[in-house]
């Protein structure tokens, strides 16, 4: 069965809509109705005046001993003021319409359909001509709207408009489901606290199997062995000679309780992102930001009171879990990641405490933990893995084995009691540790789906993902196991851990011992390993390779692979970066579609530049300092061809690309400058380059231009 439809554009042929004999289940997107606040300058001033004239001490009178009642009273009053002062309205959202389609254009489209059904060709031709100019005018009006925002330096709205034009990373609705599905997900996310863990957990070893701090190779809160100031020497290992023995931990006496100041609270309130969703308490960050001057006093009083009492109000640690699918079509509960929405007032307090906690625990943090640290990132972690590998493989009879660990719900397995025992070995005060334990225990949580909300559950294990302080707590939870030597080391990036073993003449006892000790430590700290996703890669360039015995974890052999995607970079056992180059070119070509769509609106060159840097260049130059000087000439030509295609969109892109590559190599402020300088030393000893700047220019030119004359063998 078929139906005739109007022609597309100015085509001479009608469209044919083929209908199947059966009736498929089509998901239609109806008109959505939303209630939004009408924020204006007058409304904000009225709200500020209401907060200014409020006697907060009288409001909180009688609740000094009940922290939950006082917190609920202040929260309810803020929401009451917002409901009565800020007007609201109900709007209709047409999901299937483009954002530049106005009501007049929509009416013309409907008139075209009616004229086609009536068979009036003259009217259809006239409407088609009007529709052509109306579409052009609508796109032009939307483009001018974005450029006006760009002139006012409103980059956020400009970026949002460009994503709407191109369809780049369109926002998807949360997972759909019934009340039973929501309760099942809530029970699954809270499985570690309820004691019903469906996954196989690591065996808990005896105390004799756990590495102690007296072992000179394994570190358990011993800053004298591992320091954040350690650097890589010319052999590719970490040089610890710069760490003095006097840097060990000394007893520290701190005030009994922490306190925050009014100016600190106000500064954090003014930094809030007003477009974030409100937490379970219903207080929007826009309200807190608008009334920062008026609310900082009462919030300072609440913060200091809670810190002195070493308690966290139940409302502040209540989490609304939103399941975020890991796959396009999730089939089991493990295919969803739980992201917690918590109170923004609590997040302000967490940011204030995080500054204090980092200062007290800086010397106890693992120097090979490359996440959640200022000035350190993915590039540093990859270089830390590659450089010892390359230096070691230059020697005869050398083999490198890399074991990539994968944890199952690492944040959800944090044990508050174990964490507090580790924090007591730092310079953190007992009152702060007690406050952290209360923050992690007795946390109400519920799951919100598209159409329903689950029942509430109480969690006593783990840290909610999406809060400010949870990454710090996980870092401290895993920082007591540190290992590094000339031949083996353990490096971490959040919960992605890797053991690198440089083996020579088949002597892999240290590597296997490190793996066994790490497994024992994981079991003792209740960290669950996913053996199916734990992989091992063996790099061996010898002609007569010797088969090595595989590593076993919990009685299962770890799969040996030839390629692994580590922190977004494809590593292989060559390593010739062939897989990584193919992935970059494939992803770069897919991003060309977005640039073509954006160019069809005739936007200015500055907007093209912003979109190019954010969407295209971020893909091409990802970890370029790691693979830029080792890429094959064949893959380099493919990348060079992709860059030449991009030049058609922006004439100045070529020079910008070369400058961007050189900046990535020659930025002396980065912590990886030391490692790159050592790599230059190796090259200069062979007489290939004469200066550090020359090496960086050579690598950047090799990557950016693809000049065969620059391709000296490395």
* N- to C-terminal distance: 65 Å
Overall strand count: 21
Mean pLDDT: 79
State Rg.
30 Å
User: What global shape is seen?
Assistant: globular
Low-confidence stretches: 195-256, 682-714
With helices defined by DSSP (H or I, 4 residues minimum), what is the helix count? 24
Structural class: alpha+beta
Main sheet strand line-up: 14-15-10-16-19
What share of the residues lie within helices? 40-55%
- What share of the residues does DSSP label as strand, in percent? 5-15%
> In this structure, how is the largest beta sheet organized?
5 strands, mixed
Biased composition (Low complexity): 198-216
InterPro entries: AlkB_hom8_N, DNA/RNA_pol_sf, RT_dom
Organism: Nothobranchius furzeri (Turquoise killifish)
Domain Reverse transcriptase: 305-571
Keywords:
alpha+beta, five-stranded mixed β-sheet, four-stranded mixed β-sheet, disordered C terminus, Reverse transcriptase domain-containing protein, AlkB_hom8_N, DNA/RNA_pol_sf, methyltransferase activity, RT_dom
């Amino acid at each position: 069965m078929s139906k005739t439809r109007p022609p597309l554009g100015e085509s001479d042929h009608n469209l044919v809509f083929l209908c199947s004999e059966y009736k498929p289940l089509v998901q239609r997107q109806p008109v959505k109705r939303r209630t939004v606040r009408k924020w204006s300058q007058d409304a904000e001033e009225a709200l500020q005046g209401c907060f200014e004239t409020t006697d907060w001490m009288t409001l909180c009178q009688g609740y000094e001993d009940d922290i939950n009642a006082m917190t609920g009273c202040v929260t309810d009053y803020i929401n009451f003021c917002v409901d009565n002062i800020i007007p609201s309205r109900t709007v209709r959202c047409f999901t299937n319409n483009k954002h530049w389609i106005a009501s007049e254009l929509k009416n013309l489209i409907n008139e075209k359909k009616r004229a086609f059904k009536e068979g009036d060709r003259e009217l259809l031709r006239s409407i088609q001509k009007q529709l052509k100019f109306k579409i052009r005018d609508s796109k032009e009006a939307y483009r001018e709207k974005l450029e006006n925002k760009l002139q006012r330096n409103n980059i956020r709205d400009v970026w949002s408009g460009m994503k709407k034009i191109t369809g780049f990373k369109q926002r998807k609705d949360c997972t759909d489901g019934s009340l039973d599905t929501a309760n099942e997900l809530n029970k699954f996310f809270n499985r570690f606290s309820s004691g019903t863990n469906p996954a196989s957990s690591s065996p808990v070893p005896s105390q004799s199997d756990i590495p102690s701090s007296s072992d000179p190779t394994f570190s358990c809160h011993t800053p004298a062995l591992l320091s954040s100031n350690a650097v890589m020497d010319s052999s590719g290992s970490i040089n610890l000679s710069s760490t003095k023995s006097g840097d060990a931990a000394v007893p520290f006496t701190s005030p009994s309780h922490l306190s925050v100041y009014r100016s600190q609270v106000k500064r954090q309130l003014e930094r809030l992102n007003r477009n974030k969703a409100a937490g379970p308490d219903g207080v929007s960050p826009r309200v807190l930001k608008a009334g920062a001057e008026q609310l900082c006093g009462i919030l300072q009083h609440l913060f200091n009171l809670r810190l002195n009492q070493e308690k966290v109000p139940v409302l502040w640690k209540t989490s609304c879990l939103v399941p975020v699918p890991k796959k396009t079509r999730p089939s089991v509960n493990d295919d969803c990641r739980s992201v917690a929405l918590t109170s923004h007032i609590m997040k302000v307090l967490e940011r204030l405490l995080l500054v204090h906690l980092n200062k007290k625990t800086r010397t106890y943090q693992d120097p090979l933990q490359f996440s959640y640290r200022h000035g350190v990132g993915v590039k540093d972690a990859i270089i830390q893995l590659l450089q010892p590998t390359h230096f070691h493989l230059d020697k005869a009879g050398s083999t490198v084995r890399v074991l990539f660990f994968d944890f199952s719900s690492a944040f959800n397995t944090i044990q508050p009691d174990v964490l507090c025992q580790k924090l007591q070995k730092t310079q953190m005060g007992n009152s702060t540790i007690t406050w952290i334990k209360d923050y992690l225990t007795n946390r109400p949580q519920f799951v919100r789906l598209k159409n329903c909300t689950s029942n509430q559950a109480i969690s006593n294990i783990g840290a909610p993902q999406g809060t400010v302080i949870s990454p710090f707590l996980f870092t401290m939870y895993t920082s007591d196991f540190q290992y590094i030597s000339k031949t083996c080391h353990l490096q971490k990036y959040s919960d992605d851990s890797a053991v690198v073993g440089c083996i020579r003449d088949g002597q892999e006892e240290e590597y296997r011992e490190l793996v066994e000790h790490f497994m024992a430590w994981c079991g003792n700290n209740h960290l669950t390993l996913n053996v199916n996703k734990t992989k091992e890669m063996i790099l061996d360039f010898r002609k007569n390779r010797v088969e090595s015995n595989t590593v076993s974890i919990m009685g299962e052999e770890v799969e040996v692979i030839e390629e692994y995607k580590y922190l977004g970079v494809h590593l292989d056992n060559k390593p010739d970066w062939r897989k990584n180059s193919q992935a970059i070119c494939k992803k770069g070509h897919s991003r060309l579609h977005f640039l073509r769509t954006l160019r069809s609106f005739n936007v200015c060159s500055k907007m093209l530049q912003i979109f190019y840097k954010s969407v295209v260049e971020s893909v091409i130059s990802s970890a370029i300092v790691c693979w830029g000087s080792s890429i094959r000439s064949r893959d380099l030509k493919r990348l060079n061809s992709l860059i030449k295609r991009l030049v058609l969109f922006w004439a100045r892109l070529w020079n910008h690309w070369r400058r961007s590559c050189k900046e990535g190599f020659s930025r002396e402020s980065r912590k990886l400058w030391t490692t790159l300088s050592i790599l230059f030393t190796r090259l200069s000893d062979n007489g290939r380059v004469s200066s550090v700047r020359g090496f960086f220019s050579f690598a950047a030119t090799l990557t950016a231009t693809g000049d065969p004359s620059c391709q000296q063998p490395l």
